[in-house]
Write a structure and sequence with these properties.
Two copies of one chain form a homodimer.
Chain A (H helix, E strand, L loop, with lengths): L1 E9 L16 H13 L6 E2 L8 E11 L5 H9 L6 E9 L11 E9 L13 E2 L6 H9 L3 E4 L14 E12 L12 E8 L6 H13 L7 H8 L14 E7 L2 H5 L12
Parallel strand pairs in A: 3-10, 5-6
Antiparallel strand pairs in A: 1-3, 1-4, 2-3, 5-9, 5-10, 7-8, 8-9
Helix pairs in contact in A: 1-2, 3-4
Amino acid sequence: MRNLLMTVSYDGTEYFGFQTQPDGNTVQDHLEAAILGLTGEVVKIHGSGRTDAGVHAREQPFHVHTESKIPVDRWRMALNGRLPADIRVTDVQEVPLSFHARRSAKRKTYRFSINANRVPDVFNRRYQVHHPGQLNVENMQEGLKYLIGTHDYTSFASRHSTKASHVRTIYEAWIELDRSGNYSGSHEQGVIHIFMTGSGFLQHMVRIIVGTLLQVGEGKRKPEDMKKILEAQDRAAAGPTAESKGLMLWEVLYEQTDLTAGDLTELNNYET
Amino acid sequence: MRNLLMTVSYDGTEYFGFQTQPDGNTVQDHLEAAILGLTGEVVKIHGSGRTDAGVHAREQPFHVHTESKIPVDRWRMALNGRLPADIRVTDVQEVPLSFHARRSAKRKTYRFSINANRVPDVFNRRYQVHHPGQLNVENMQEGLKYLIGTHDYTSFASRHSTKASHVRTIYEAWIELDRSGNYSGSHEQGVIHIFMTGSGFLQHMVRIIVGTLLQVGEGKRKPEDMKKILEAQDRAAAGPTAESKGLMLWEVLYEQTDLTAGDLTELNNYET
């Protein structure tokens, strides 16, 4: 038995999220089918977490136990040959059996992208929410700062959340303004990327934070309102849930010791 | 009668090119249908040139004559509301009746994008040709230089070209290497963007140049072979035609006097 840690990038537009659902058509279904095709094994993969329908991932980790003897450096190309073009395995390595893609995760970073120009960018239309009209980015940055730290994020969680505790930690949160893709001669706002790094995120948490921050940017709320909303511990206090298409799982980090502990003598990292 | 100059960006994946074809489903068809919906006029638009099926455009100019009294600054949003999400009008301005989007064009720039990393970028999979394996970019740059100038480009033109002369001028040609999108920890080549600016391009010309340059990058040909291929004036001397998905019409430039001459007292540029 070996434990393989892989990372997968996907354009989530056509999928009902990462994790298997009763109605099918998830990223997990495609990955498990590709592994079945390669090894003949019916496996269950374990993602670093769920993603909502329409959400994208840049390098989402998952692990899978396998009896296959296929060398680690063959898996990536073999799986990609069996996957649709909008799902690509980007890395495969062997890790200790104790490693778990979700439970071992230390930090997760999400990015939410808002195109604030008057015309949507056709080439990124699947990955950006189009929000024309002036946004006060400085106020959005200030509002975001109130959310950093360890808090009960009930106000920013779906009412359908089944988690016992809504206490999470946001380590860092910041905004990057990208004006590089602007059309020549335009004097537009650019694309606003909102990043959040935390211990974990509740259902819809990033999207509700963004939906509320957009109200701050529009001047409908003040930056310091974010603090009051947090303290209310009431979903009704926050703004709407921003569209899933703007959200991308950006990065999941582990302790290096979790990846290399145990009796492994060599880290089978295809990349290095 | 007014003459409107517009620019349009499109993801060409789903279309049979810009210009109307017997089998339909072109960008021009959609633009003319949107104008009909807005003004009630059956019009024929004139693009800056054709693009092949599957080729993209960042800001392709076209002009159209209209009797409509709708103010210039209303057109963009009104047309975009009638167009599919992969076609967007980015600018509309009124120009002299003497202006012609194709005949007035002074310079055209194309970009061809090659992803040379081992795994394709799912988010740009529609706009990049995936070419894993080592490419000698310096040799490709050197080979490209032999094409700059005024030459007969028969070797790099489709055999179906019906042009009386294959003499054109390439003013500039250069390569930009973009490693920004690389996955963390990877030591990969990045994305190779090949740019060419010229007076005009023959059918398939950029794609055949790129297909040949890829052979230079792979070491199958030497950089100086580009000179011999050019001199052969024979399509058989060059390499294959690169896939259309990697090609994007990047920019078309006009003389400012062509845009503002005549009896116009004001340049109705929505952006400025």
